[in-house]
Amino acid sequence: GSALRVVEHLLPSLVLPEVAAGSDSLRFVEEAAQVGQDLALAAERYREALTLDPSSEPLLDALTATYADAGRYEDLVGVLEAHAEGATGASAAALLRRVARTLEAHAPERAVAAWERVLTSGEDAEALTALAAHAEGRGDDAAHLSWLSRLCDALRQHPERGERAAALRRLARAASARDELGSARRALGELLLLVPDDLRALDTLEALERDAGNHARRAELLEARRGLTRDAAARRRLALELADLHRDTRRDRAAEARILR
């Protein structure tokens, strides 16, 4: 089981100056390793060791892995929550995420509150993603849109641009579904700053700008689509559309002639 795999790496990590050979903490761990498949006894030994060395992450991992192997998910959640109470910042958030993941798998009706607790330590992409999914699942469109908006903001400085791009696509779809077209246009505009060659986003945003009567922005988007289009017939259609746009808005006769050349 996962508990035994943890044990394989646990003993070397505990032989530190503060956990010397022969100490009570190490003795409890050695006993836990010897009891093999007696998960109840192993868990008891890990708990005893953890009371002597409460800051030990390897011991906590071993205990939670033992609880998982034994199907004792309430105990697993309990020990993680107890440690989270004494932690702060990133350490608290990491423990609370483990609580939420466990509840997501075994008691999903309690997961929302757990993910919300993660956010007490700061905005967290995993928690926001999960909360958006829960809101969507229960048909709460307003909450779904709100969580997605926060997710996009939280990912603004994320090094993985693809993750934010995916979140912006979801936000644009959710906003469009609620007829919050201004929000949809903003999301698509931000998406195109990240992925300028996203033709679907260009098409969708161009249609929204057309409906909004924003001719200048629509012309920019049509130009961008034409620049990305390799098919000659499609380029010609876009050129005609641009020319019609300039003619209808009487913006620039020279621009109309230049496009059609």
Report on the architecture of this protein.
This protein has 261 residues and is mainly alpha-helical. It is 78% helix and 0% strand. Helix 5 (73-85) packs antiparallel against helix 6 and helix 7 packs antiparallel against helix 8 (125-137). The protein is elongated. The termini are far apart. Mean pLDDT is 86; it is low at 6-22.
Topology:
Layout: H1 2-14, H2 24-34, H3 39-52, H4 57-70, H5 73-85, H6 89-106, H7 111-118, H8 125-137, H9 141-154, H10 161-177, H11 181-194, H12 199-212, H13 215-228, H14 232-249, H15 253-260
Q: How would you summarize this macromolecular structure in one to three sentences?
A:
This protein is an all-alpha fold and 261 residues long. 78% of the residues lie in helices and 0% in strands.
How far is the first residue's CA from the last residue's CA? 71 Å
Count up the helices: 15
As a whole number of angstroms, the C-alpha radius of gyration is 28 Å
Return the string of H and E elements: HHHHHHHHHHHHHHH
User: So what's the overall shape?
Assistant: elongated
Number of strands: 0
Average pLDDT over all residues: 86
Beta strand %? under 5%
**Sheet of most strands:** none
Broad structural category: mainly alpha
Low-confidence stretches: 6-22
- Helicity, as a percent range: over 70%
